């Protein structure tokens, strides 16, 4: 297990004694609950408290239970009294937790790699909702795409190509020693709505390819995988060699942060539960995967007849989201809870 995952595990799931009394269990919290396949840690914690991301505050790690920070289908979760305080913990283990073989919570992203999670252990959030954004999307600067090799044509002059096809690409291949490339298409250019600073350009994954021959600035490329038709003008970027976190443990950001939702997945304007959103804050603002942010809805503008003037009502809490991937100036986050209708432009802050 990597040092990063160990740090996240212990930081997020270790039994926290401070401020436990301030966190209230729901009055209808179940005495016991049997974990089923498809559950997430967030879902289970929502059964016990109205602040699911505060799960570590009430979670009791029984040292007599193997891997008490991991929960499996068949495990029984229940209320227990520890030193006079009501806590939540594992009452008994199911068969899955006794027979499963654990794999690391991170994987290397290689040209042929796929994302894998801990076998059978329930995730903190629904990983399926963010899988494509973990592996496939990138945020780059404009020069990166401008200077990248571009698909010039198909071997048979086809304008649209799929897996198994060969194409010609033009560019400075001397800059790239590797033969494996990702195929990308230019997506949305993101700018900060307040400062108008350019934050990044989204590159959308189209597939994977291999350069099988080079002749000056012309490369012959074989398309190994495509999730949509490759078109003339699509670009080749070297595959990344980086670790992807596949187990997330919600936590509060390291510092104060506030910003706005820039965009939502699929290009729609309305935002709902389990939608992926783009935020105008990133690593330079000290955001990390696992950080939970509170969504705020702008107050309505009403007319005060007595004073004959318009008045802006206070902002109201409208839900929560968790950051799962960060770039220098941007982040991707998953909407975990939406108590009011949300849209692009709504604001977020650190938990108070």
Mean pLDDT value: 80
Taken as a percent bin, the fraction of beta residues is 35-45%
Distance between the termini: 33 Å
Poorly predicted tracts of residues = 1-22, 100-119
- Rg is 24 Å
| Named CATH topology of the largest domain | Thrombin, subunit H
Helix content: 10-25%
Q: How many domain regions? A: 3
Overall shape? flat
Biggest sheet architecture: 7 strands, antiparallel
User: What class, by secondary structure content?
Assistant: mainly beta
**Total beta strand runs:** 25
CATH architecture of the largest domain: Beta Barrel
Helix run count = 6
Q: Can you identify the CATH class of the largest domain? A: Mainly Beta
Quick tags:
352 residues; Thrombin, subunit H; 3 domains; 7-stranded antiparallel beta sheet; 6 helices; 10% helix; disordered N terminus
Describe the fold and architecture.
The chain is mainly beta and 352 residues long. 10% of the residues lie in helices and 39% in strands. It is built from six helices and 25 strands. The strands form seven sheets. Strands 6, 7, 9, 10, 11, 12 and 14 form a seven-stranded antiparallel β-sheet that branches. A six-stranded antiparallel barrel has the order 16-18-23-22-19-25. A four-stranded mixed β-sheet has the order 1-3-4-2. A hairpin with a 2-residue loop joins strand 3 and strand 4. The chain is flat.
């Amino acid at each position: 297990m990597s040092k990063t995952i160990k740090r996240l595990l212990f930081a997020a799931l270790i039994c926290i004694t401070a401020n436990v009394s301030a966190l209230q269990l729901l009055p209808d919290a179940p005495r016991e609950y049997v974990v089923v396949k498809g559950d997430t840690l967030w879902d289970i914690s929502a059964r016990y408290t109205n602040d699911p991301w505060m799960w570590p505050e009430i979670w009791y790690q029984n040292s007599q239970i193997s891997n008490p920070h991991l929960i499996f289908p068949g495990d029984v979760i229940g209320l227990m009294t520890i030193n006079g305080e009501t806590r939540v913990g594992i009452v008994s283990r199911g068969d899955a937790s006794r027979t499963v073989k654990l794999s690391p919570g991170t994987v290397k992203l290689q040209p042929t790699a796929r994302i894998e999670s801990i076998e059978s252990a329930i995730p903190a959030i629904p990983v399926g909702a963010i899988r494509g954004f973990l592996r496939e999307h990138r945020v780059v600067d404009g020069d990166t795409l401008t200077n990248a090799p571009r698909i010039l044509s198909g071997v048979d002059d086809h304008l649209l190509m799929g897996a198994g096809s060969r194409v010609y690409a033009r560019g400075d291949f001397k800059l790239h020693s590797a033969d494996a490339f990702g195929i990308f298409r230019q997506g949305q250019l993101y700018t900060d709505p307040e400062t108008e600073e350019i934050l990044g350009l989204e590159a959308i994954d189209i597939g994977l390819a291999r350069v099988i021959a080079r002749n000056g600035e012309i490369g012959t490329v074989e398309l190994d995988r495509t999730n949509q038709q490759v078109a003339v003008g699509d670009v080749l970027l070297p595959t990344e060699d980086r670790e992807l976190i596949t187990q997330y443990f919600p936590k509060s950001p390291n510092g104060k942060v506030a910003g706005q939702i820039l965009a939502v997945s699929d290009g729609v304007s309305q935002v709902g539960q389990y939608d992926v959103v783009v935020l105008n804050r990133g690593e330079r603002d000290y955001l990390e995967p696992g950080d939970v942010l509170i969504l705020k809805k702008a107050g309505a503008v009403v007319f005060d007849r007595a004073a004959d003037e318009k008045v802006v009502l206070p902002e109201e809490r409208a839900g929560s989201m968790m950051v799962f991937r960060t770039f220098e100036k941007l982040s991707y986050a998953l909407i975990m809870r939406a108590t009011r209708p949300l849209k692009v432009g709504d604001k977020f802050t650190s938990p108070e």
